[in-house]
Specification:
Chains A, C: This is Nitrogenase molybdenum-iron protein subunit beta. The complex is a heterotetramer, with two copies of chain A and two copies of chain B. Chain A is of the alpha/beta class. Chain A has helices spanning 21-29, 43-57, 70-75, 78-92, 103-107, 112-125, 145-160, 182-194, 230-234, 251-260, 273-288, 294-315, 326-338, 355-362, 376-384, 400-406, 430-450, and strands spanning 2-7, 13-14, 35-40, 64-65, 96-101, 132-136, 173-176, 199-201, 241-244, 264-265, 319-323, 342-347, 367-372, 392-395, 410-412.
């Protein structure tokens, strides 16, 4: 029907749903094989992020920091960066260092590009020239972690993708996944692998954020397993196309299009739900020329089978609030509508220009309240307003107290989920991810709304 | 040669002075500490905002905690600590929202324009709006950050103005992340600000001869409630808490305590000193980790207040309850090698108890941000050959694991999962696993967690081939 | 430490945990591509089973019945069987019909072997000789559905496996899965596929019980997708070995060993939990000679990683009751012990001779109460006895009221699970299945025992 | 040629007589029904045990239901029906276990030895043990089965003996699965047994002039509670229920009702006839599906008992509540083609209401086990050209789907998922989806379920290519 767009009527943010730019850049860099994010800023800027990533992934998160102190504010961060790069390279020998700026370094006017250039020279003279050093601008006040991720991917592409003259034309597809969980990235890889499509994930946190435990094979210093190699990124300029799953992460795809004429698909529905996944597979097929094979259609059929079983019977018309990453919220809104449920409110926490129209385009006959740049308080007030009749919340662990206070079930997805386990390693994308979401949603509905009339569960 | 340069540190030899191997009784060797970290060395330290809002003010139950910053600083300090609070207020009323400190954070979410043109206008609006949203909040605490420090927003002035406008305390805490070398600076700044701005500004509804103030006890996973139980049962009255499960008002009348007890001596001795100096209230450094320290300190308080018998009753009751079980755990755990890496003082609080009462072998201790006095205590409380590390980094942790092969690591969440990857059990000692860890029952909880971690069957399953 | 074996001290069964033999045979036959079970008995014998299978799998379950009535009791079931076979073959043209006897047909003394033989002749004369007709003896009173399954698999092997003289020696492994869910069979197939081991599943319900929804491709009369083909079974006599996952289903493997010298492995731990899966993979490796490849070791490592994260912290020492299929209970007991939890009581509902010693062999330092031939009332009484301090139940939906009455969490597995969705299509076997179980167990523990002290969930 | 031979039935031409296409007003054509099913034709019918214990006695709240059989018969009849019950008993007491009928089943789990040597000894023990376990149960109902029928166990004798020994009713129901052609036989046997053994054996605590008995109402998904509300509000007193949410005692005093209402006329007219014959209690066949039938039948009862005005109040209240919403659903649903395949009478209960009140187009009706009287009603209530099927099998369902392309099927769980596979929505009409379905609000529930099923977006997603 339509969306009603509301803007938060407060200056104060109460329980934000996003964090600042650097985290997104760290995320991107940690998707590089033997990549290390180096935060050019205060220690909190790395430590807080490490803490938050660690509690979500329950994995070691190794992020370096150049440790700004008062003196840095006075003399600038050049020395900190010099020492940091040398220390890191000497001790850890990473394949890549992403130099991630912060509010501090940006406000004091650090010229990280210049610093890095001069450093590269110095390091080369010292014999350390194996490590790519990529400056990434992420002034915290300039956007959310989604924007920081976008900047980082773009910086990686700009700095690494080499002209395709020397690269043989290949069938490679690039995927910019956005801030997806390992389970989601794995599911995308599963779909591409099923079609035998070669791809480069820009970048690939699927194993670095979800590494197997195997002490005997664990080297030091610690690096998570996997990740996209620097070489892979260097070679992307001859690819058949780039798909950016997240609209907030399209800059790199556009850069690659402009500089290397690689076709870019950046405005699709994410591969969440049936339509979104259909669209994704068709795009992959179109770009790569590889067929969509039957096993994927079987997965599709199995998901539809479950949807048929549960949608009219348990879910129809139930009112849902969804908040979080704009891409995931858009995709889940589509999936939830495919289930015959009613999405009553969505919010993303960040200001995403196309979000309201994206929601509108999938809203069908529903009237959806869209809160631009919401915070958790917006979600809480909406859910606690009984007139809204909210029956289910889809969101991160941030909503745990709303769930605790109201008893309205919370189906967890996205980042962060720290009060339950396993969520980061399971998908919500693809047909199988959709099936998992349908299972979670239905089982929460059954537990909450059917258990009290238990006889209805007997068949 | 009591200092040791780790293999991984050969390119950063300045680390040698931070790592010390206890040798005989050489008292003179100082450990380099409370100094700037080497950039890029993968430190585990945080910033002043973490030390201020994260550690201290975030525990207070009835205040609006507003971070004046881009969204990240607020995001990262939202409800992350295990600081439960009860809604009961000292005036007998109930605060309308349970665990308000965990549930809500407030921030100015500064954008580019605010950075260019200044953020004070937005700060004022944010303060007014927050207060409107939760008018029952007792006060508003505003933390400045790197950004607002660097752009020069006069947060003190705004808070002063707002205090008048709103008729309630609006307190500035100047905690830019780059202040000092670690979160320790944030503790100090916050101690000073609370003292300067609040202590002595209110009077308690009533006082008794047994009034005490628990300083540096943040109620991690319910620690404070354990101590409160013991102290109350022996006849003492907790007049103020700084700052676990505390209300704003309590901070304002800390000067009326008869005796201040300093629990976390790294983060909160400052304010005890200031109160003693200005108001003449004496303080005692206390240690309630383990049964023996608990016995000792309760007895000390009994003597101080003439409540010796009452103290004995409490000791007998609660120590008695755990004695047998602890003995069993000691039998199970004897000889297991442990590395303690705490934020601050837990490395010296726990070393003797873990050895004496649980039979563990402390092979290394470390701290993120201790100062020299803390390291002296660490040194005094560990046996010959123990490694003591200041501000160790991830790579040193790995080297220590592979070289010294501890059976267990007590550390934070960032180190926990790294230890796991090398097959070493680890317990979160900052925020605990199944706490509380203080007092008699707390020490038993810790023993259980240690036992369960070391004995988790998963560690025997690492190797596919060995089956 | 030891197990304490208790026998139920009642003659009366209160809420049985097993059903009678025919259901197991139907299950086995429905794992054949275009296989139809034909129940030689009363209509209830097929309809009740169809109902119970349908509510668990939420799939069409097509089982024929020869519709015994009073006259059959008098004149015998020959005519019923004659008509049934002809009707079925004419109208549905199945690849195979399993003639499943019942208490009625056995008591009245129907000679189904004789009936089938004479029928085959008749049908051949009518030109219907494409359908294999396999008599399966399942007198309801002679055992549980586990035994019925065993009889059916054995009958299929006996009747179909042809001497291996004409069959080229191959690397095939046979798997008798037992009454596993589609998700479990799929997981076993995934492990074998990962190792590139060719296999025959005896039989394979993974798709017939979990078929994709795709009306355009759905032919009539309805048959579920997939299933083991009759030809595949005919060729198993040249296999490298047979693994029976379930001890109750070992007869077929033994038959194949005796008649065709195919090595049989029938006494292992099921591939549930780390040790069980390790053992399974090593057996596959030993029988087939194919290597255990790294992707499986990565799955192993990911599961261990989760186990390390949660076992000491959330699960250690928590008291668990497990009931259900003896194979699954044995495997889950092993897994739950691997998690550092305390299994206090197990029961299976059927009398399985080796069950107590199986449990004892994995009990480590735990003292476990084993109820031989329990029923749900045994479980209920045990759980409701506060002295037992039970904190978690692993079992089927049958325990829903115990969960409802006590609030003690029920982690669902096995058959039947009808009050939640998706369980049949997700595995508990293999490393990935173990990971799923660990997730379910942990998340139930977090929701029940940590949510009330919510601050403990913050990191 | 009103009969029709389906394509799939060409090899079993005897099916032709069971399938009838309504033509003009030809009343003479009889539908072959209530006959043996062709073996192997994939019938959806069940057995006498299902009709007896499954449909009727399983709804009674306070009795031990004991199946004398190998374990399967007990297993399959354990708590499978959506028959909730309330623990309130007519004597004012509360039965100690909520939903006892759903929670517990009892059985003799006969083994080979019992089959050889007879099962009566085990049956006796099982009765005694059950009674010991739940001494507060009001009675024990024992069903015999194929096995116990064939081996000749004298269940009647055992029950008689046990009745004396235990001092409470132990009632035998002789329901071997092979009795009769469908579950219908089980209904009849159970009606007879209840009448013979129980009716007239007890007297109600009190009677009024408005006492009624609801016969053939099993409280599927709460249906009975809806009717109870209407009837009670208009001044009637539900003296007995047969058998939804009923207590054992109520069955024993059914003869004291002033009027018996027969809801399910297939499964329970027998007992109404018997009671009328022996005790002179009249009965009315009633129909409460849909608003119009509900209006009519409440008015009829109003007239019968002189409660006309009271009936109107109830009608106005409850009919009024759903009127507008039903109108909306009718607009949405008009013209959608529906096939109703019920166990028994729902095929004729629902055909007119679905057409008149929801605008649906009934293209086919069928029943598992109706008798001729039921088919006559079906015939009378469907429009020209409607297909009427007796005991249709899976293959006929598929042919009907592919040929007649219904938009929705009302059937059981076995047909539901088969319909789905062909892309056709289906609602469980035996046990309901989101019931209750009876009465005004029930009909609205049914309308909602129909709407939600037909309009589930999933049906538009079937085709990958169409996107």
């Amino acid at each position: 029907m339509s969306v009603n767009v509301y803007k938060r009527d407060r200056q104060v943010t109460i329980d934000p749903l996003v964090t600042c730019m650097p985290l997104g850049a760290m995320w991107a860099v940690l998707g590089i094989n033997h990549g290390v994010p180096l935060v050019q800023g205060s220690q909190g800027c790395s430590t807080f992020a490490r803490y938050h990533l660690a509690r979500h992934f329950r994995e070691p998160i190794e992020i370096a920091v150049s440790s700004f102190h008062e003196s840095t504010a006075v003399f600038g961060g050049k020395k900190n960066l010099n020492i940091s790069l040398k220390t890191l390279i000497q001790r850890q020998n990473p394949e890549l260092i992403g130099v991630i700026t912060t509010c501090s370094s940006e406000i004091i006017g650090d010229d990280v590009y210049g610093f890095v250039d001069s450093n590269k020279q110095e390091l080369k003279e010292l014999g350390y020239d194996n490590t790519e050093i990529i400056p990434i601008n992420t002034p915290s006040f300039a956007g959310s972690h989604f924007a920081g991720y976008d900047n980082a991917i773009d910086a990686l592409i700009k700095n690494l993708a080499t002209p395709n003259e020397n690269i043989e034309d290949d069938n490679n597809i690039n995927i910019i996944p956005g801030l997806l969980n390992p389970g989601d990235v794995n599911e995308i890889k599963h779909m591409l692998d099923s079609m035998f499509v070669p791809y480069t994930m820009l970048t690939d946190i699927s194993e670095t954020f979800d590494s197997p435990l195997n002490p005997k094979k664990q080297g030091t210093p610690y690096f998570g397993k996997g990740g996209t190699t620097v070489n892979d990124i260097k070679n992307i300029s001859a690819s058949k196309g780039t798909i950016s799953i997240a609209k907030y992460a399209k800059t790199g795809a556009e850069t690659l299009k402009q500089t290397h004429k690689v076709p870019a698909v950046t405005d699709n529905l994410p591969p969440i739900g049936i339509k979104g996944t259909d669209e994704f597979l068709k795009t992959v097929n179109k770009l790569s020329g590889y067929d969509i094979i039957d096993t994927l259609m079987t997965e599709r059929g199995l998901t539809l089978d479950l949807m048929a079983d549960v949608s009219a019977r348990y879910l129809a018309g139930r009112k849902v609030v969804i908040f979080g990453d704009p891409t995931l919220v858009t995709g889940l809104t589509s999936l939830v509508i495919e289930l015959g449920m009613e999405v009553v409110m969505v919010t993303t926490g960040s200001e995403e220009k196309t979000f309201p129209t994206d929601i509108e385009s999938i809203s069908k006959n529903q009237s959806i309240d869209v809160f631009s740049e919401g915070d958790l308080k917006v979600v809480e007030d909406y859910v606690k307003d009984k007139d809204n009749g909210v029956e289910l919340i889809l969101g991160s662990s941030e909503a745990r107290f709303i769930n605790y206070d109201t008893g309205i079930p919370l189906v967890r997805f996205g980042f962060p989920v720290y009060d339950r386990v396993g969520y980061h390693s399971q998908p919500i994308v693809g047909y199988r991810g959709a099936k998992r979401v349908v299972e979670m949603v239905t089982n929460e509905v059954l537990a909450k709304y059917y258990e009290e009339k238990h006889w209805k569960l007997q068949q | 040669m009591p200092h040791k340069l780790f293999e991984i540190d050969k390119e950063i030899p300045e680390r040698e002075k931070h790592i010390y191997i206890k040798h005989c009784s050489d008292e003179d060797n100082e450990i380099d500490c409370n100094k700037s970290t080497i950039p890029g060395c993968m430190t585990e330290r945080g910033c002043a905002l973490a030390g201020g809002r994260g550690v201290i003010t975030g525990a207070i139950k009835d205040v609006i905690g507003l971070v004046h910053s881009p969204v990240g600083c607020q995001y990262y300090t939202t409800g992350v600590k295990r600081y439960p609070s009860k809604p009961q207020l000292p005036n007998g009323k109930t605060f309308p929202i349970d665990n308000f400190n965990l549930k809500y954070s407030f921030g100015t979410d500064l954008k580019e324009a605010n950075v260019v043109f200044g953020g004070t206008k937005k700060l004022k609006e944010a303060i007014i709006e927050s207060n409107k949203e939760y008018p029952f909040a007792s006060a508003i605490y505003v933390n400045s950050t790197c950004t607002t420090g660097l752009i020069g927003d006069d947060v003190d002035a705004v808070c002063k103005e707002m205090t008048e406008e709103l008729g309630k305390d609006v307190v500035a805490f100047n905690t830019p992340g780059f202040s000092g070398v670690s979160q320790s600076k944030g503790h100090h700044i916050t101690n000073d600000a609370v003292f300067d701005r609040l202590v002595g500004t209110k009077e308690p509804p009533k006082t008794t001869g047994y009034d005490i103030c628990l300083i540096g006890e943040y109620n991690i996973d319910g620690d404070l409630w354990v101590l409160e139980k013991y102290l109350t049962e022996m006849g003492l009255n907790i007049l103020s808490r700084f700052s676990g499960d505390a209300s704003h008002d309590e901070l304002c009348w800390m000067h009326r305590s008869k005796l201040n007890l300093v629990r976390c001596q790294r983060s909160a001795t400052y304010i005890a000193d200031l109160i003693e100096e200005k108001y003449g209230v004496p303080y005692k450094k206390v240690d309630f980790f383990s049964t023996e320290y608990c016995d000792d300190n309760l007895r000390m308080l009994g003597r101080y207040f003439g409540l010796e018998e009452e103290a004995e009753v409490v000791i007998e009751k609660y120590h008695g309850e755990v004695k047998e079980e602890l003995k069993w755990y000691k039998e199970q755990l004897s000889g297991k090698k442990v590395y303690i890496f705490s934020g601050g003082p837990k490395s010296w609080h726990l070393s003797i108890p873990l050895e004496k009462e649980l039979g563990l072998d402390i092979i290394a201790v470390a701290s993120q941000f201790e100062h020299l006095d803390g390291y002296d205590k660490m040194k005094a409380r560990v046996k010959e050959g123990t490694t003591i590390l200041d501000d160790p980094n991830s790579l040193e942790l790995e080297e220590l694991i592979l070289t010294n092969k501890p059976d267990l690591i007590l550390a934070g969440i960032k180190e926990k999962y790294l230890a796991y990857k090398h097959g070493i059990p680890a317990i979160q000692i900052h925020s605990y696993e199944n706490g509380p860890y203080i007092g008699y029952e707390g020490f038993l909880n810790l023993a259980k967690d240690i036992y369960n971690n070391i004995n988790a069957p998963v560690w025997e399953l690492m190797d596919f081939e060995s089956e």
